[in-house]
From TrEMBL:
Pfam families: NUDIX. CDD domains: NUDIX_ADPRase_Rv1700 (cd24158). It comes from the Bacteria. Keywords: Hydrolase. Residues 47-181 form the Nudix hydrolase domain. GO terms for molecular function: hydrolase activity. One of its GO terms (biological process) is nucleoside phosphate metabolic process. This is ADP-ribose pyrophosphatase. It comes from Streptomyces prasinopilosus.
């Protein structure tokens, strides 16, 4: 495979029947009867998710803005980068990312790029996440956003890229968006550079949006 370019491609196998046995506040669970290549039909249960955005906010001292938040399903307080749901169908992901950075950190950024796009758990959930790189950070104007629930206990910090990479490789940091974002940042620097990243309004087939 050396020198071969690989690329994910869209494909949709026949679904004979579908049902939604659970509907929650933000997500639901769907069961599809999917036709396999040999003609058999199997059940596939998966979480239906509206999609998310995340922001790797990098300051002039080469530190990343991170926050520590309790995550009940894994019974951990995790260090993460600012992130949130795409609450409105067709919502522009850049606008959602700017909102999350303001609400969770009271910070704004001058320069935005697409760092990477990922499916977080494609075997059991259709969640798609767009991770942005934000630079040129400054304090946001106006009052701070009123937080609630798990966010009311949130801690904020700025941590060097070097320390984050060490923590990821040591198995001390586990949040998907933080891990993918930080390692993608390092890869981009070692490749064509951060200014070669896709523009903030680049198309996103997984979650189409209007500019």
């Amino acid at each position: 495979m050396t020198g071969t370019t690989i690329k994910d491609t869209p494909e949709e196998w026949e679904v004979r029947a579908t049902r939604t046995p659970f509907v929650g506040n933000k997500t639901s669970v769907r069961t599809d009867d999917v036709v396999m290549p040999n003609g058999t039909v199997v059940h596939r249960d998966y979480q239906v998710h509206p999609g998310s955005v995340a922001v790797l906010a990098l300051d002039d001292a080469d530190r990343v803005l991170v926050l520590r938040q309790y995550r009940h399903p894994v019974r951990h307080k995790l260090w993460e980068i600012p992130a949130g749901l795409l609450d409105v169908p067709g919502e522009n992901p850049l606008h959602a990312a700017q909102r999350e950075l303001y609400e969770e950190a009271h910070v704004k950024a001058e320069d935005w790029r697409v760092l990477t796009d990922v499916y977080t758990t494609a075997g059991g959930c259709d969640e798609a996440v767009r991770i942005f790189l934000a630079r040129g950070l400054s304090e946001a104007e106006g009052d701070r956003f009123e937080v609630e629930d798990e966010e009311s206990d949130m801690e904020l910090a700025r941590v060097s890229v070097t320390d984050l990479v060490r923590g990821v490789l040591a198995g001390e940091l586990h949040n998907n968006c933080l891990v993918v974002g930080v390692l993608s940042l390092v890869a981009a620097r070692n490749g064509d550079g951060l200014d070669a990243l896709r523009p903030a309004g680049a198309p996103w087939p997984a979650r189409p949006f209007e500019a």
